[in-house]
UniProtKB/TrEMBL annotation:
Pfam families given in the database record: AP_endonuc_2
Protein's recorded name: TIM barrel protein
Species assigned in the record: Streptomyces cheonanensis
InterPro entries named in the record: IolE/XylAMocC-like, Xyl_isomerase-like_sf, Xyl_isomerase-like_TIM-brl
PANTHER family registered for this protein in UniProt: HYDROXYPYRUVATE ISOMERASE, XYLOSE ISOMERASE
Xylose isomerase-like TIM barrel domain sequence ranges: 3-217
Amino acid sequence: MLADTKALGGEVFQICDYPLIEGYDAARLADLRATAADLGLRLELGTRGVRTAHLLRYLEIAEALGVTLVRSMLNTADHRPSTDEAVDLLAPAVQRYAASGVTLGLETYEQVSTDDLLTVVRRVDRPQLGVVLDPGNSVARLERPADVVAATAPYVVNIHVKDFSFTRRDGWIGFTYAGCPLGEGLLDYDGMIAAVRPHERGLSQIVEHWLPWQDEGFEATARREDQWTRHSITTLLRSAS
């Protein structure tokens, strides 16, 4: 995957929601770091949850990999902290992150309102805690993507870029909300970039997809994913030039 990222013109690879990396020993982490360095890629990490001990474990991994950004989410399958609890858990972890030069970003998504997410970020009140912006995630909470972008823009430390659209279901009974190629859906990419200014602020943009499974099976789905990835990276590189 690192080699594919380099071949496509990418500069950053975010190892996100891949808990197997927690079991990597020092030698394997060093090998991963060296491979990325040889390819000229920066690495980022991603996990879920705000328990202090868990975040400090990911800080250890980040330090071993030379990572300066870790993405997380407030909730996990077995832990849904209140804003007060989240602040109490995050404050000591973020202090350690700051001492190591690592930024922690909390992602926007439907399980937590954008207002609550920003309340946590503001109360911790350190530049090393910010927002990972993915405006499509919050639609399921009936939050408009443009409103999420506007509210979070000053706090964004990382962007997940995926486009999305609604299509009518058979018989016009309801909708399917799914991904689509970048530029063909409801994401106002240009508006998001104008608000967040990632190029000016040195923020990375990570390509993601909500890729519907293709009826023809795995091979067809993998081919479609490759097409979408190439299209998205080409679009991002063009916007940065």
